[in-house]
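User: New here, any thoughts?
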Amino acid sequence: MNWLVYHLVSGQAFFTGVLLLIIAALADGDSRPVIKRLRFLVFFVGLVAVVVSSTAIPDWVGILATGATLAWILSRYRVTWRRGAQSAFVAVWLLAGLTEIPYHRMPSLHSAVDRRLGVIGDSVTAGIGSDETADTWPALLAREHNLQIQDVSHVGETASSALKRARSQRLDAPVVVIEIGGNDILGTTTAAQFERDLDALLTFLAADDRQIVMFELPLPPFFHAYGRVQRALAAKHDIRLIPKRVFLSVIADRAATLDTIHLSQAGHQRMADRVWRVVRSAFEAQTSQ
């Protein structure tokens, strides 16, 4: 995967964009033509990086950032606004960067009551039926870490169909990993419908004694609405989100996929290793006993 694509889709471009925007604002006041042109270029690249990163910043942050940006631009024509607009611009974009940092941290789990792990996923988890991918990452986790896997994954799964499948099977594992939503985004599911379907799925799965972790979806440019849905529902149901760079780091290696999305055997191994890093803390105490 091209490094620029990875930088954009992983969400790291958001921080690059914020940094460039702040640099552009701090360079304000220098009237030299070359600096003015450079400042405009830095500002433009920063704004593009923020937008195409599809980062699901909260609505209130987006409103503040839009207002501060417009005020800073208009201060070109209102000299008395310039210092205040510059300060507000820098402060708001710094705040935007700070609010995003928690979503790039790896989640942590407390000790589970037993070694059962539930998995809900689509074809990235279930495989696509090739002999090359006979050992999916849930199967590898079971074999390599002595876990009892309740695998409720299926090719073509969406949030809606995952709920139906989960209801049809007994899923009582104390820890559940969710890898779902790719088919919703790439298909015809609107963000509003995705919100209803995912909310229903998480409502069904949520329990006082169950820990749920969910892969945050790497998003194409301008698909931030789906990311906002995931984050809002994760907060509502106390779901821990796995940063989207984790999923992306698996498929970034050409050898890890069959078609840039579906995992090869090497890809399933990479995914198993990364999922284990997330859920390991829930099972480490039992391993040491």
In short: The mean pLDDT is 92.
